[in-house]
Amino acid sequence: MSQVLFDYTRQDASGESCVAHAWAKVPEALTPAQREERKARAAALLKQHDAVLVAHYYVDGDLQDLALETGGFVADSLEMARFGRDHASQTLVVAGVRFMGESAKILSPHKRVLMPDLDATCSLDLGCPADDFARFCDAHPDRKVVVYANTSAAVKARADWMVTSSCALAIVEHLKSQGEKILWAPDRHLGRYIQEQTGADMLMWTGECIVHDEFKGIELELLKKQHPDALVLVHPESPKSVVAQADVVGSTSQLLKAVVEGPEQTFIVATDNGILHRMRQLAPGKTLLEAPTAGNSATCKSCAHCPWMAMNALQGVIDCLETGTGEITVPEPIRTQAAGCIERMLDFVVKNPQALAQPQRGFVKNIGAA
Q1: How far is CA 350 from CA 19, 74, 367, in A?
Q2: How far is CA 200 from CA 158, 182, 183, 195, 242, in A?
Q3: Using CA atoms, how far apart are residues 109 and 253, in angstroms rounded to an integer?
Q4: Which long-range contacts (CB under 8 A, 24 or more apart) does 212-215 make?
């Protein structure tokens, strides 16, 4: 695969750099004919290998479309793993970032899990090394360890609970009601939001998502003035100044539901712009505005897209199926230990369906709950 290499530099006060410059490996741009040829080739290989493609909302739209067209799934990380676990196929192709492939393998140890690019990672994962995290936990043995899904298998192996952004509030409220104090990792913005909502005693790791961390409160305020009728949708991994202006704060799937099921016609969306592909498909008549990540002096006004999600490409799907490259492995006992915190969350959600409760104004196929 032809690629272009860039180095990532954090944005400075002038907004001269941003995640638009963070691509580690940018797949070569395809012509329409090349796209169709590679989609057809990938679809044939999925059928040939009796494999199913599970894609995250943030990856390239061609991969999302390919998943749906071939009997796969497009969802958030937990629903990706659950779909893979419950699907009859013994080969899962996970288009997303590495912790998603690991989660699929943890829940489906007997299946082969492939990824288009094993180098596709996550800033939250990178910012929470397992050894450092273990020392942090050792220093606070009186606390229940709760980790966000965006962590490595080794970090999950140390945790009591894993949560997603859709069930984190309910689980933390449950732990608080049991008199538990919490050690939270890795996203500080999501942790702060949950702490504010629940009043729980939470000790925070100081990680962040480089995409959501760049949304700018002052710029969002200006955009809202330009579009006073727009509903503001914000992922809780965003800074407090952005969350404070939201009409809806929720997980990727919850924000998608707000667009599809709500009566409003204009939305300002503060999450990775990869979600806009599915939003436009499911709500074609609505206006979607990207929340700003920088000021007027920046090289782009709204450029919220994960550099590692962008590494997923049609050619990567073809390569992993043709050659068997990109296979995810999770060694024991890490896998078994990590499975414990995931299964505990899954059991909680099954027993407490209200944990994922949200207004329902219709049913939309292929929207996950995580």
Answers
A1: 37, 21, 18
A2: 21, 8, 11, 5, 22
A3: 26
A4: 212/237, 212/238, 212/239, 212/270, 212/271, 212/272, 212/304, 213/189, 213/237, 213/238, 213/239, 214/11, 214/18, 214/19, 214/293, 214/294, 214/304, 215/239, 215/242, 215/270, 215/291, 215/292, 215/293, 215/304
**What six digits make up the tokens of 137?**
């936990």
Q: What angle do CA 317, 18, 236 make, to 5 degrees?
A: 80
89 contacts 50 by C-beta, under 8 angstroms: yes
Terminal-residue alpha carbon distance, the chain: 32
Pairing of strands 26-27, 3-4: antiparallel
Residue 74, both tokens = 């497009």
Angstrom CA distances, 366 to 55, 57, 83, 282, stand at 11, 11, 11, 10
Going by C-alpha positions, the residue among 369, 358, 355 that lies closest to residue 161 is 355
Instruction: State the Cα torsion 9-11-17-18 to the nearest 10°.
Output: 90
Amino acid identity of residue 319, one-letter, is: D
347: burial class by Cβ within 10 Å (0-12, 13-18, 19+)? exposed
DSSP state of 192: H
CA distance 286 to 55: 24
Question: pLDDT tens, 224-270?
Answer: 999 999 999 999 999 999 999 999 999 998 999 999 999 999 999 99
Give the least confident one: 14-23, 102-111, 251-260: 14-23
Tell me the pLDDT band of 79, cut-offs 50, 70 and 90: confident
Q: Give the pLDDT confidence of 321-331 residue by residue, as tens digits.
A: 999 999 999 99
| 197: phi then psi, degrees, rounded to nearest 5 | -75, -30
- pLDDT confidence of 358, banded at 50, 70, 90? low
